[in-house]
Amino acid sequence: MDRIYKIAVSFITGFGPVNIKKAIAYIGSVEAFFTEKKQNLLKIPGIGQAFIQKLDRETALLQAEEELKFIEQNEIQIAFYLDADYPKRLLNCSDSPCTLYYKGNADFNASRNISIVGTRNASDYGKEQCTKLVKDLSEKSIKSTIISGLAYGIDICAHKAAMQYQLPTIAAIGHGFQQMYPAQHRNYAEEIIHKGGAIVSEFTSNSKFDPKNFVRRNRIIAGMSDATIVIESARKGGSLVTADIANSYNRDVFAFPGRVSDKYSEGCNFLIKTNQAHLIENIADLEYILGWDDQAPKTKEIQTKLFVELTKEEEKIISALRDTGKTPIDLICLKSSFPMSKVSSLLLKLEFDGMVKSHPGKIYSLNS
């Protein structure tokens, strides 16, 4: 029965994942969200009378029963945000889906996840850069999972290169599992699953293709990744939306530069020019920024200084890290009540002093 409630959340309209998570936290369980009296739901911060009047939990539960039949018939799995198999990187994104539907066996919580996105009108140059980057990633001792959106152009190039060089790959789609868009990529989707990857969606089975859904899909691509790499993009398009979302999640963004006269380099050049993305020319740039140069000679770690005089602001940062262990920078900001600019500066100084260690995805911990 627990699965029914987790699925039924997907059919609640007019109340996004942020508020649903708040409600579940307040009530204590997803089941209680569907069984609690409506008048008691009004006590939950963020829930008003207008929502209560529109809330149709009975219909949502009936729809969930039909969805469960489809899921079981088609070997689809679900990951609820309170489940152990839910992508942990998405837990740091407040607007991440409550429930994900997926096919395949990819490890969502692998140590290294890279998303690669770009134009549907990829040039030979863009495809070459994409394939070379994936090939170079495959030669590292720690393998990366490649995440993209199964679309034409750079997306499908990234998936194909990952399969060619035996890296797991995850495709996030913007519709339900009753269809596949584009239809020409259905065979690639099946191959991804067969080769140990996964297809993932937040949409229920009968959700149709709708361009508006792809913004929601893009936040999954960005949120599941340690870094997003843009390879060719026009000044406007889904790739820049994904880059913007990744930046809002405090994830690193990279962009390959191109000629100023090329339409599908305008977006990448703009991201670099406005400091919204690191310039990347090869895998060395990626490894340097993310600290992933695992094949370089190991240097002796800086020893934590035993007698360092800390300011009150630095003590707040240390206290936040001591309480939570590995912590994303946005949570450090929340716990310390400092703005992002101040936290970044303090973390950098503490890292130089040997007190703090940085990890991929702008995550920090105390240096043991």
TrEMBL record:
Residues 78-286 form the Smf/DprA SLOG domain. Transmembrane segments: none annotated. One of its GO terms (biological process) is DNA-mediated transformation. It comes from Marinifilum breve. PANTHER family: PROTEIN SMF (PTHR43022). Belongs to the DprA/Smf family. It comes from the Bacteria. This is DNA-protecting protein DprA. It holds the Pfam family DNA_processg_A. Residues 309-362 form the DprA winged helix domain.
